[in-house]
Structure formats: C-alpha cells, structure tokens
Amino acid sequence: MSPELLSALTVFVLAILVGFAVISKVPATLHTPLMSGANSIHGIVLVGSMFIAIEATDLASQLLSLVAVAFATMNVVGGYVVTDRMLQMFKKKPVAAKPAEPAEG
Amino acid sequence: MDFNTVSDLVHLAWLAGAAAFVIGLMRMNSPATARNGNLLSAGGMAVAIAATAILLLVRPTESGGVNGTGWAIIVVGILAGGGAGLYTARTVKMTAMPQLVSLFNAVGGGAAALIAIDDYLNLNAMNTVPTAQINVATVLDIVIGSITFTGSLIASGKLQGLIAGKPIMIPAGRLVTIALAAITVVGAVFLWAGNLSVPVMLIILAAALIFGVTMVLPIGGADMPVVISLLNSFTGTAVAMAGFVLGNDVLIIAGALVGASGAILTKLMADAMNRSVVNIMIGGFGGGEGTMAEAGSGGSVRAIGADDVAIQLAYAQHVIVVPGYGLAVAQAQHAVRELAELLEERGVDVKYAIHPVAGRMPGHMNVLLAEANVPYPQLKEMDDINPEFERCDVALVVGANDVTNPAARRPGSPVSGMPILDVDKAHSIVVIKRSMGRGYAGIDNELYTNPKTGMLFADAKDGLAALTAAVKAL
Predict the structure, then answer these.
(1) Fewer CB within 10 A of the terminal residue: chain A, N end or C end?
(2) B322–chain A nearest CA distance, Å
(3) For the whole model, what pTM was predicted?
(4) Would you say B121 and B142 are in contact if contact means Cβ atoms under 8 Å apart?
C-alpha cells in the first residue's frame, strides 16, 4: 500500500470513531436537527465537485461536473439554512408564557 | 507566495473546516448550544470551500492561464444550486421539512456519484487501468451514491405524498432487488479485477439506481425517517469514497463522520420504534398482514360534540395533549397552544406527550410545537409521561394515530412491539380526527373503539378552535 493510502485509511477510520463518539450523546429531541446538520456536512462533496469542474475538458465531464457542483451546493446551502431554521425555534424556548413557577406553600 | 505555501495553507484550512464539523456536531448535543454548533459547522464549510477556490485559482494549469470554462461551470453551478437550496430551505413549511432533508440528501449522494462517474470516464479516456485503491473507491462511490440518490428521492416523494406512503409491492420485487444487487456485485468484482470498461460501469450505475428505487418502495411511510437517516449515512460513506478517489482528506473526514453518525442515529431511531434496521429494510410493515385486520376492530365508535369535550376539559385537573402528525398538517400548533393556555388560566394542568417518532421524524414534533411557542417544560418525553396517563382526567389526542394504538402491546399486529403512549389508561379520552381513516401502518386503531373514547370528528385546527370557543363560553 502506498503511504497516501495508508494515511487516508488512518484518517477514515479515526473519523468514523469520532462520528460514533459524537452522536451517542445527543438527546432524542435534537435528532431531527442533528440528521439535518449531518446532512449538510456531507455537502463538503462540493470541494470534490469543484476539482472535477476545473479539470473538465470534454463536454461530458463539463456537464457532469456542472450538475455535481449544483447538487452539492444545494446540499450545503439548503442543509445549513433548514437546520438553522429548526434550531432557531429551540432557541426561544424559555418564553414568557409562564413568567415564574408558582411558589409552593 | 508560491504554490506550495498556498497549498499548505489550503490544507490547513480544510483541517480547520473538518475540526469545525466535529465541534459543531458536539455542540448539537444540547438545545442551548445546538444553533451555535450548526453555525460553526457552516462556517467551517465556508472556509473549506473558499480555500478550495483559492487553491484552484493559484495552481498551475497546463495552458498556464485561467480555465475559463471550468470557472464558469463552478460559478453557474454554485449560483443555481445555492439559489435552489436557499429558496426551498427558507420557504418550506416545517411540516414538510423531512422530505426536504431527504431531497438535500439525494443531491448530495448524486454529486458524490457524479464525481466517481466523471473520474471513471477520464480514466477510460486516458486508457489507464486505475490502481486498486482508486478502482475500489470509484466503484463503491458510484454504487452507494446512486442508491442514495434514487432511494432518497423515493423517500422524499413518499413523505410528500407524490408516491403512496403504503408499502408498494413490486411483482417479484424481492427477486428483482436481489438480481440487481447480484448484477452490481458481479460488475464491481469484474472492474476490481483490473478491467477497464465503461459499459460495465454504466450497467453497475443503472443497477444501483434501480436498486435504490426497489429498496425504498416496499418500505412503509412510517419507517421513512429511519430510511432517510440510513441513506444519509450512505451519502456520508459515498462522500468519503469520493475523498479516496480524489485523494482529498477533508472529504474523507467529513464523509466518514456523517457515515458513522448517520449509522448511530439510524439505530437510535429504529430503537425508538422498537424495530431493527434490518427488519425495516426488508420491508417489515405489510409483512404478515391479512389475518390481523379483524382481530381488534368490531367495537362501535362514540362520536362526541365540542361542547361536551369543553366541559370535560374545563373541569379536569390533569389534561395530557397527544399531538401527532395530523396536528402539524392542519397547522394547528398555535390553536392547541391557545386552548392549553386557556385551560391553564382555569387552573388545569396541561402537558404534552411527545412520542419519539411523533410527526415524521424523531424530534419533529418538538420543533413544530416550539415554533408555536409552547413552553418547553410542558413537553414530556414518552417514558416520563406514560406513568402519568393513569391519573390524567382527559387525554386529548390530536392527529396522532399509530403511536396510541394499544394493539402494539400484542403480537401479531404490524405495529407490534412499537413503544406507544399509554393513552388508553387515561380516565377519559378525546380524539380529534377528521375521519376514521387509518394511520401509516394502515390498520385500525383500537383506541377509537374503547368505551372511554369520544371521537370529535373535525379538522385538527377547526376542532381545537371550536373547543377553545366552547371553553370560553363556559
């Protein structure tokens, strides 16, 4: 195996373990925003799409990379915006509907 | 600065982006820091993308100049995709949000697959047999990315109602699915053996695309959140594979992170419904049907008027509201909050029982009620609220169905084993529902024929408004 592949595999395996560790702590209430947030993160594929776009010379590659860039950007932008919209609602949870808990006794 | 320095800085920026993704996910642990975490993650993404643009600008090209066409593609693609993403994300109703997430997942997987397809076509054009590393990653990327693409589109269509939510059985569907899987595996092994063949790649591509469809079609709508989560994990894996193809660490890190986190999340969601992921993927709902339909039904249904319900509610001590997807569809979150506030003014203790999969995804109902300014402390998770039903005077079920069906406690029903809210233990039960229509599981709800249950036949919003008016009039 080439050194590049070895280091890529190392990164891959460690990142998987980090993913497992990070998620196990999230409360159920946040599962939907979390799924959406994780969904935006794989929009990083835009970086790869940019690489193939800049290297595209024939028409087929150009069309494929155009769709790839558009798809990936939609994933990134839409993903983060919709996640933020969801989380925004949690932010204002201590509303003034009940100013204070009625004191006992 | 020379190119090497810039390249180093860009790699550091990618590393920073990857770190932001990890920290961002960690901050999504608690509602207080979640939004901040998402913004941090978005910031990391912006940095990574900007760094990529800089790298592409300064790196030497074969012709020496700037690749105009390439940049035009990038700019047009970003504008088109960004515009579409921004518009849909900002205008979508919160009730329709799960299918939008699925759509974003589909395009992400599609982009990952396109990268591999493009890479393969280029290899073919240069007639170079790829190294084993590239070859394995490319084929995996094409397969996983394509399955996610069509699978997520179908899942999205099911939630949107474009495709029937009930399990769709394709004639000999399982055979077709197995055959497609076999074609994919054989093709992949053929390519991995060192053969360079675009037709075989295209066959694999087509098989994987159709596989995505046949995999999701037989799965019932109620299981869709789990499927979306699983496909989300797939996309992450596909992106990591794209990282191997391109030799790009940040794609590998982010992809693996999402692949792993998505897998855990999928398991958590499946656990919440007491179902195994394997069961769901084989198309659990709809299996073993037929005999069950008559088992529970047979009792008669008691209809009840808004005035009667209002009296029950107004003179109760403890009321538990059980909101479901029907409430969200009718946009009745505000109406339910209004009624609850009115009751509280009269000294009634009101709580909300939130089933883990209420709405369309775990946590979805919390989002919808938070949107309507329902005080967070009133939202109770299933395990906390279930013991309270016994001493609750009235349970008001608004648009929830399968998650309240006592049939789940017995074997032999499609919902068997699914954790449910113990609504049937309340002293009195009121169900606001438009008709006797069935829920996602496609079965009758025994709760409705319970002698303690009164059915208020109305649209959730209208029914709640009528109740509010009736309580005010008391």
Answers:
(1) C
(2) 16
(3) 0.80
(4) no
Gap between the terminal Cα atoms of chain B: 79
Question: Residues of B with CB below 8 A from A41's CB?
Answer: 21, 24-25, 41, 45, 236, 254, 257-258
Tell me which DSSP letter residue B169 carries. Answer: P
d(CA B320, CA B349): 8
Name the token pair of B189.
Answer: 């092994």
Tokens 């949870």 -> residue = A93
CA quadruple B52, B54, B58, B64: dihedral sign: positive
| Coil, strand or helix at B313 | helix
- Pairwise CB contact (< 8 Å): A8 & B42: no
Q: Pick the closest to residue A95 from B416, B371, B105, B37 (CA basis).
A: B371
Contact of B401 with B358, CB cutoff 8 Å = no
Distance CA A2, CA A6 (A): 6
Task: Find, among B460, B443, B300, B321, the residue nearest to B389 by Cα.
Answer: B321
- Residues paired with B457 in a beta bridge: B433
Do β-strands B349-354 and B379-381 pair in parallel, antiparallel, or remain unpaired? parallel
Q: Environment class of residue B64 by beta-carbon count within 10 Å: exposed (0-12), middle (13-18) or buried (19+)?
A: exposed
**Are the C-beta atoms of residues A32 and B367 closer than 8 Å to each other?**
yes
Distance CA B363, CA B390 (A): 25
Pairing of strands B318-323, B349-354: parallel
| Confidence grade of residue B267 (pLDDT, cut at 50, 70, 90) | confident
Answer whether B35 sits within 8 Å of A41, measured CB to CB: no
Higher pLDDT among residues B354 and B330, named by residue: B354
Strands (E) in B257-348, as ranges, are 318-323
At residue B188, what are phi and psi to the nearest 5 degrees?
-65, -45
What are the chain A neighbours of B272 within 8 Å (beta carbons)? 28
**A70 contacts in B (CB within 8 Å)?**
76-78, 80-81, 84
pLDDT, tens digit, 9 for 90 and up, residues B9-36: 999 999 999 999 999 998 887 778 888 9
User: How does DSSP classify residue B303?
Assistant: B
